[in-house]
Amino acid sequence: MLRARVIGNVWATKKVSSIPNGAFLEVEVEPGGSRLIAFDVLGSGVGEAVLVATGSVAASWFEGEAPPIDALIIGSIDETTSH
Amino acid sequence: MLRARVIGNVWATKKVSSIPNGAFLEVEVEPGGSRLIAFDVLGSGVGEAVLVATGSVAASWFEGEAPPIDALIIGSIDETTSH
Amino acid sequence: MLRARVIGNVWATKKVSSIPNGAFLEVEVEPGGSRLIAFDVLGSGVGEAVLVATGSVAASWFEGEAPPIDALIIGSIDETTSH
Amino acid sequence: MLRARVIGNVWATKKVSSIPNGAFLEVEVEPGGSRLIAFDVLGSGVGEAVLVATGSVAASWFEGEAPPIDALIIGSIDETTSH
Amino acid sequence: MLRARVIGNVWATKKVSSIPNGAFLEVEVEPGGSRLIAFDVLGSGVGEAVLVATGSVAASWFEGEAPPIDALIIGSIDETTSH
Q1: Neighboring chain C residues of A32 at a CB cutoff of 8 Å
Q2: Which pTM does this prediction carry?
Q3: What is the structure's pLDDT at D83?
Q4: N or C: chain A end with fewer CB closer than 10 Å?
Q5: H-type helices in D14-78, by residue range?
Q6: Which of C57, C76, C77 sits opposite E56 (nearest CB)?
């Protein structure tokens, strides 16, 4: 998983079929600073520190047919200890 | 997903079997500038900002047997807010 | 797999459903220094050298429905010989 | 997919079971210059511009049990327009 | 696939269940120099040039339940021609 911070929203009206309910959020990976768009079903907000799972496991989380989603926010980070 | 901009077309006559109908578009990832070829079923045009899903979820979106497609344009971006 | 060292813990109370029992550990890849969050079921501690498997194989290891976990600590490294 | 150019051949006599008929070709990604080994079933030659699909979709293309192939040349590029 | 050279061994006594028989070998990707740990069932030795498949196709090669293995040495390289 990646540790990242939510930095914005992306809106797309023209989409392929089978995109589930939720939001496309732009996140910045920490450390590193690379960016990606993650799907969010937790109501995460800008500035929030989150855990992002990438690849087909993001799609498999959804019930029914797997949507074409390759990054999912799986949790909101409360606390981190690094040594 | 990756946020990218369509920058060109790629044509391939000699292909393996089971490539679906659609176009191969070259896209440039924003930010970053790396490039990849994404499959498009939405009629996206050069200059359009798009969302690209990569990996096996791109193939799984297609009905029937999954084609050897590892990047799919899943939406056209209307608006982005970044903080 | 990646050879990495455990450098910290990540706690997340607000999570999507179906996260199994275990810990989210921050690890630093050796050599290289890039960081990721790996799921741990072995009781690994800070400072421990570990093997991390990434991608859908991490999720498939779990019994029952595959959780949205894309990195799993699969072993604790006893010894390494490099030439 | 990646846009790449075939730059050489790789021969391996000692192999795991279930590698299908075809060739292992070394390709150089354009732009960028990184290199990988892609499996070829189209008879592609050195100097040819090709489209390469990576990951599990490469393996899934084969009939029967999926071989341990993570990169497949899916087409020969006739023409590219970039803007 | 990646073209790589075996540079060492990694031993892990404390492991998750379902790791098959074989060795964890450290390999260095050529060209590039990045390193990863690949699983070996061919008896590859230090100094040997090998082909490494990564991702879920490595796990799918094994019979029965797929183990949490994301990189597999699929062949020993006899000869390479590059142009």
Answers
A1: 34-35
A2: 0.97
A3: 73
A4: C
A5: 56-60
A6: C57
